[in-house]
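Structure ticket #2291
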Amino acid sequence: MSTALAHPGLALAVVCAVMAALAAVVYRVAALDRPLTVPRAAIRGALQLAAVSLVLTAALRHLWSAALVLLLMFVAAAVTSARRADAGWSGTWLAVALAVGVGAVLPLLLVSGVVPLQGVAIIPIGGIVLGGAMTATSLAAKRALDAITQRYGEVEAALSLGLSVRDSRMEVIRTAAADALLPGLDQTRTVGLVTLPGAFVGVLLASGSAVQAGAVQILVLVGLLLAQTCAVAVTMELVARAHVRR
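Resolution: structure written out below.
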């Protein structure tokens, strides 16, 4: 019996359409927003995934094309982080945080041979690590900048006591920015108890081996923790030194 999940076809399209329609009904009854919000999002997501699937089919064949796809993903992640942080053009500095986070993980995985130097392995693992680093960077930058705005009096007080600008701002942002690491930590602490993450499920369905699925998942989770920790640490420095600001 095949273990493949969600075969493309008419049945899949009908089920997705029904779910989107039911969500639209709930939107209408509960007056959440415009009823067509979910159907439009579903259609957009389907079109984007179709386009990405075609691109990846070609990109996975060669190492250079896989690297190009990862570069485009990195650019998109940097733009997204800057926009979410509401930092204007200074938010482009957050690309440094993302580069440090991803750079701390991917070379280690590739040089060690744990992840083969092939597009079919690099793109999914790199995408997961990059996505986690992007989320942590965006959240850390936003909370750090919010903290400086809301607690600017404390920053001025620290300056009056002789602390440098960097140290004064760091006193305010350290706790707020560190909160960006909590989702990743909670996910790692509760894996297998509360949720079965996507990497585990994907490998399990593909290989049928729970042991192999667990090995891949712990590799992904620990890699995410390292990438997010490095990215948040650099983000804090960038905000503290006013490279990223509002």
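Closing remark: The CA atoms of residues 133 and 172 lie 22 Å apart.
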